[in-house]
Structure formats: structure tokens, C-alpha cells
Amino acid sequence: MTESAQKPRARRGRIFPERTITPEELARQEAEGEIYHQRCLAIFERVRPELIDKYYGWYIAVEPDSGEYLIDQDKMQTHKKALEKYPNKDHFVFRLNETGATGRI
């Protein structure tokens, strides 16, 4: 059988084409996420100097609407505490170190 006699393959597309995000919507979501991160980062930068000596290497979850934060030695426990206290709010987790980064490169 030659290639021209083979059955043509069906083209594959998106599983849920109705859930496609427009580039404008994607840009808006990314901008909102960056603004939210900057709000959390401002609170983190404010409290870091007073916490870094005692809790170096610990994790801090920041909820910017209330301005409150929660700390724990374990990243997942910090996240869990934040979800329990603020179940319908977003939060951001930083590490109490010089950069605030939580992972490895």
C-alpha cells in the first residue's frame, strides 16, 4: 500500500475549544497576578528583618488583604495553615532568607 492510498489521519485539536483563553484575557490575568505578588512582597519585605534572625529558613504565607502572615518550618504546613485560616482567599508563600525564594534552581 502506498502512502497516497493510506487513510488520512484525523487532525487533533483542543479537547475543550470553548475554554480557550484569549491573549487579552491571558495578559490581564498575568498582570493581576503580578500586582497580587507585589502586594504580598511588600508585606514580606516589611516583616522579614524582624523575623529572619529567629526563623531563618522557615516559610511565611502572606495574605495581603488582611496584611497578616503565618509562619512554619514546613512549606506544606504553612500552606495548610493559610488555607485553614483564609479558605476563600489567595496567599503567597515565601521563605525567610535573603531572597524569599522557596525552591531550588
Descriptive overview:
The protein has 105 residues and is of the alpha+beta class. The protein has helices spanning 23-51, 75-85; strands at residues 59-63, 68-72, 92-95. Strands 2-1-3 form a three-stranded antiparallel beta sheet. Strand 1 and strand 2 (68-72) form a beta hairpin. The model has no long low-confidence stretch (mean pLDDT 87).
Layout of secondary structure:
Blueprint: H1 23-51, E1 59-63, E2 68-72, H2 75-85, E3 92-95
Descriptors:
105 residues, alpha+beta, 2 helices, 38% helix, elongated
> If you compute it from the alpha carbons, what radius of gyration comes out, rounded to the nearest whole angstrom?
22 Å
Give the SSE order as H and E letters: HEEHE
Let me know the average pLDDT.
Answer: 87
Our estimate of the beta-strand percent is 5-15%
Instruction: Identify low-pLDDT runs.
Output: none
Secondary-structure-based class equals alpha+beta
Main beta sheet: 3 strands, antiparallel
Find the count of extended strands (DSSP E, 2+ residues). Answer: 3
**Cα-to-Cα separation, first versus last residue:** 51 Å
Shape: elongated
Query: What fraction, in percent, of the residue positions are helical?
Result: 25-40%
Strand order of the largest sheet: 2-1-3
Our count of helices gives 2
Summary, kept brief:
The protein has 105 residues and is of the alpha+beta class.
